[in-house]
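RECORD TYPE: inverse folding
INPUT: structure tokens
STRUCTURE:
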């Protein structure tokens, strides 16, 4: 996990540097204001809720993007798979952290990528040596019990494993992972795939002699986008978000704290 400390330090600093980009805003007087609902899951430090109030480093980022798109947000606490279903039905307007797939294109419109998502395999201490010398396929074949979040896309390599019945059979799926050693122990797992910023945050919040170790097994490093419902959001609004994302991505703060 030490290899990913930079990510933790970088993004947590974003909370203190949410100044407006120096570029001119995409919003102008000719644009009609929009009001959109967005489904967001508990996922600190990226996003969390205090009552109905959303906060977190990714919440700050999305609010900046929406501001430049001249849109206000109603942030709704929903688990990730619930948000995907709600976007498909048109009961919410969009969600975050979306990997582009052909299946999702049938019901949604993807924005341009707004950040890169890095996912790493974490394992219990007894698998530390094995997970640094074996492929993920070999680990599963040997009986390694892996937990994954329902309806999440984990990159091409893990998707190929999930499409191989004999390997997918050995994976346990959950609505929302706990991202810590307690979750792995409670569900009789040997490891999980998770964001290193999330794992570092959890370790800082709950120091323990027990912890999960990052493996040198490559899982995924890929861009993620906003996913808008075709039923409720026009392509013109999505284009406004695309322009806003470009503005924010070129800001000095984004380049310093989100560009990895």
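DESIGNED SEQUENCE:
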């Amino acid at each position: 996990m030490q290899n990913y400390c930079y990510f933790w330090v970088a993004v947590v600093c974003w909370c203190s540097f949410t100044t407006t980009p120096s570029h001119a805003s995409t919003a102008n007087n000719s644009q009609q204001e929009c009001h959109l609902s967005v489904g967001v899951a508990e996922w600190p430090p990226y996003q969390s809720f205090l009552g109905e109030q959303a906060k977190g480093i990714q919440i700050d980022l999305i609010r900046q993007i929406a501001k430049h798109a001249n849109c206000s947000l109603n942030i709704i606490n929903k688990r990730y798979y619930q948000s995907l279903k709600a976007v498909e039905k048109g009961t919410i307007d969009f969600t975050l952290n979306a990997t582009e797939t052909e299946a999702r294109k049938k019901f949604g419109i993807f924005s341009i990528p707004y950040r890169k998502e890095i996912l790493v395999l974490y394992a219990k201490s007894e698998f530390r040596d094995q997970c640094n010398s074996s492929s993920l396929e070999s680990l599963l074949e040997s009986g390694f019990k892996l937990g994954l979040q329902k309806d999440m896309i984990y990159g091409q390599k893990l998707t190929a494993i999930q499409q191989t019945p004999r390997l997918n059979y050995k994976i346990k799926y959950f609505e929302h992972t706990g991202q810590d050693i307690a979750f792995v122990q409670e569900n009789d797992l040997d490891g999980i795939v998770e964001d290193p910023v999330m794992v570092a945050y959890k370790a800082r919040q709950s120091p323990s002699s027990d912890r999960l170790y990052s493996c040198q097994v490559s899982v995924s490093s890929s861009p993620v986008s906003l996913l808008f419902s075709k039923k409720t959001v026009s392509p013109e609004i999505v284009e406004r978000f695309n322009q806003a994302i470009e503005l924010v991505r070129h800001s000095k703060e984004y380049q310093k704290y989100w560009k990895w």
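NOTES: Residues 117-221 form a domain with the D-Maltodextrin-Binding Protein; domain 2 fold (CATH 3.40.190.10).
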